[in-house]
Amino acid sequence: MLRSIKKVIFIFCLLPPTIMLGQIKKNKIRETSFYFDMIQSYQFFSDKIRNNHCQMYPSCSKYSTQAFKKHSFFKGITLTTDRLTRCSHDYKNYTTKKAIPNNLCLDPLYIQLAESKLPPSFASNNHLKENDSFQQFIGYLMKSKFYKEALIELQKRKIYYPNYKTSWVLTHIIKCNNELGEETKSLELFNFEIPNSIKNKPEIQFETAVTYFRVKNYNKAIFLFEQLPNTTYYYEKKIIWQSLSLTHLHKYKKAEKLIDQYLKTNTSLILENNRHQIENLRNFKPKKKWIAATIGFIPGAAYWYAQHKTSAITAFTLNSLCLITTIECIKRENYAMASLIGLFSLSFYIGSYSGGIKSVERYNQQRKQRILNKFQITK
User: Fold this and answer.
1) SS3 6
2) For helices 252-265 and 232-248, what crossing angle results, to 10°?
3) Among 38, 258, 278, 356, whose CB has the most other CB atoms within 10 angstroms?
4) Against a cut of 0.85, is the pTM above it?
């Protein structure tokens, strides 16, 4: 009931701006326009009704504000009506943002690559055999996720003790940069600063290859992984990351062949699991966008096809109510109200049509991501 009240309030907050089309300048609505005042009014009343507990992130009002800032008026209306149709429905089709209270559904206006992110690599010093206090200290910082502090210590060691285990220091600088999301700095370090004499060190090549993987340059990552030696320490890691890179390039058969060759003479639970997940990806049958575009002319049909069933019912109901209201206004010869409601009816129709097609993309991304999340990597 509260969700319905929320949508009614939002619709009535949108009504005045539709009359004030004179405030549209260069197809954009200025932030100072009356529209944003109405959005703020909606946010005030909505907070009172629902205690600011919109189940989507960002909330519908913030999403709508972003849409009108970045797009034309009619595009903003379309995006807003699509969001209202999907609000607080079909949670399984969205990524849950656990860092925010109440585990809100992540649905930004622009999705950032999201979608193919694998678990981050873990800092590990298990391969270090020397009892080195500095190495132990760096290992402690990284395991405690104090990457900035570790990076400062490594940079100091690099400057003041340039001959101290150079490859080890550079390798861990790359690791810290990666964990801090500074992959560009890692690549600049490898390509422009590291001397050629140590650039071919396996530990540096491995971390750089992982960096290329993280920035989605899978071909370069594969090239560097192939340069690694087939030693006991690197062979399994090499195959794991090569097969993952091939998987992201949709070269499933090559990835399976690579793993099968390794498993002929070796055992690896990680690779056996990944082999199974690659097979699942290869057998995955995505929903077709052209089907959604074809059946989307029926309000809610594309949502239903994309397994957004509650959103489909909402879209069908809202479009039907708007259409019935428009017809009743025409019968009563209230043409002004009929035009106004008809405009919103058209907005909801276009919004549900385009939103249904996007829901197919979301469905495919979420199903693939669930399989990718089951992949395992070495620590």
Assistant:
1) helix
2) 160
3) 356
4) no
